[in-house]
Each structure stands twice: as structure tokens, then as C-alpha cells.
Amino acid sequence: MNDKTIGTAVITGASAGLGKIYADRLAKRGFDLVLVARSHDKLESLASSLRKEYGVAVRTLTADLSSDADVSKVVADITADDSVTLLVNNAGASTLGSVFDLSAAKLEEMNRVNVTALVRLSHAILPKFKARDNGTLVNIGSVLGFFTMPISSVYSGTKGYVAGFTKGLQQEVADSKVVVQLVLPSATATEIWEKSGVPVTALDPASVMTAENCVDAALAGLDLGEKVTLPSIEDAELYAAFEAAAMALFSASSGTPASRYGVTKG
Ligand code: NAP
């Protein structure tokens, strides 16, 4: 067990990829863990090795986050556990390809796992963090949340939602000590690529980060107090300029039709 000041970290999608590395790094920092995913055996095996290696308490929650009932089960579990101080909404599903070839089931899976589950878990835990003025929420988006390719319409749509939602939450907790971090990884070598239909070997190797580096950079960003962490983007000013352009565009709104539309004014 940890000393109670650190508390328990809940990590969704902890059976593989980034989530598995988050589990390792957070256990190393002394967090007890709740590991969530569908793959029961993988979660149990990870839990057992983390208990042994770091001496922390680890429990697993086998849940399909595309199922409303299972999301409710996770909500009930983590809101009943007052030791939870950190939630990493990391679980993600991706099927890449033309939306015309995408089955309704795959479309629903991305929306449910990437958006609905993340929103419901954030919505459930944040009031508890706010009430005790302590807690950290990490939501994993993607650079594909602000850039869409013809093969990523739905995935990019889900990650755009994650970004917009998480930036709103940041403003809602601004008057408290609660921390909300948005992490926007670029291409990272995990199983998600194979599952998405685009093998990671199809990418330029120089453009692909290791999962370890991605999580270590994301946690370093959290330690630095970054609200938005882009693990692989060297020039931090690029994102600042992007946000400034978004603000300028929003602020340019008016009640008058733009002249190029030739609509009668008044
Ligand atoms: P990954 O290796 O495929 O791992 C995905 C994790 O999510 C697994 O633990 C998987 O566990 C879990 N998951 C998927 N569907 C689930 C469901 N229905 N219910 C419960 N858990 C589910 O992918 P990753 O690359 O580590 O992705 C982690 C996050 O990073 C995702 O949000 C992803 O969109 C984002 N991201 C990844 C990249 C990249 O290039 N890898 C880039 C940008 C953003 P089970 O299969 O056991 O359920």
C-alpha cells in the first residue's frame, strides 16, 4: 500500500500500449492502482508483476468500455473508492480507412470507447476531486484530434471531442487545485496500429515514438504543470500559435453576415 497522500491511480486501457507503461511508471511513483480493460488475463499478469516489483496494491477491473453497463460498473467502483486521486483516461479504439468502408459497429466502438466512456468517467470523478480540492485527470487525445486525414474521419472526430471537452474541464477547475491534463501523442509504436488496419511498419520509423518515451514525456509534462502535452513536438510555440489562432477566429465572430456572402445586412 502507498502512503495515503499519493493515493490510487485508475488507468483505463492498462492491458497494453501506453496504459501498460502508465501502470508501470505510476506504480514506481508509489501509486496504488486500479487497472481497467477487457483482457482479464493480461491485467492480472501485469497486476501481479507490479505488486511484486513495487510493493503497491493493484486491483483489476475487467470491463468493456464500449458497453454502457460496464462503464457504469467502473463509474460505481471508482467513485466509491475515496483513495482515487488520479484517473488516466487512456483506453482507445481506432479503425482507420474510408468512412464508406467502416462498419457501423466499428464507428460505434470508437465513439463509445474514445468519447462516451472518457466523458462519463471524467464526469464521475471530477466532482469528487473538486470537493476535496485535490486530484488529477489525464485525458489522452491525439494529434489527429486537430488534423484529419481521409482515413481518420471518425477517429479524428473522437479525439477532437476529447480535446474540446478536456479544455473545457480545465477552465471549470481553474479556481481549484485539481489538475486536468490533455495529452496529444503523435504516432507511437503500440498494437493500436495493427488493430486499426494500418501496420506501424507502414509509417516512417523516424516518425514513430516508443510507448515508454511517450508516457515518460507525458508524465514529465504533467510534472511541469503543462495543461496540454504534445510529447513529440519540439517547438512548443507551434501549439501556442494554434490556440491563439483559434481564439482570434472565435473572437472575430459577429452578428453580421460576412460581406463575401452578399446577404442583406441589418
Ligand atoms: P493499444 O496498444 O491498442 O491499447 C489500447 C488499450 O485500450 C488496451 O489496453 C485495450 O485493452 C484498451 N481498450 C480498447 N478497447 C477497449 C474497450 N472496448 N474496453 C476497455 N478497454 C479497451 O493502444 P495505445 O496506442 O496504447 O492507445 C492508448 C491511447 O493513446 C488511446 O486513447 C489512443 O487513441 C491514443 N493514441 C495512440 C497513438 C499511437 O500512435 N499509439 C497516438 C495518439 C493517441 P483491451 O483490448 O484489453 O480491452
UniProtKB/TrEMBL annotation:
A Pfam family: adh_short
Pathway given in the UniProt record: Lipid metabolism; fatty acid biosynthesis
UniProt keywords, alphabetically: Fatty acid biosynthesis, Fatty acid metabolism, Lipid biosynthesis, Lipid metabolism, NADP, Oxidoreductase
S-adenosyl-L-methionine is among the record's keywords: no
UniProt record similarity statement: Belongs to the short-chain dehydrogenases/reductases (SDR) family.
Protein name: SDR family oxidoreductase
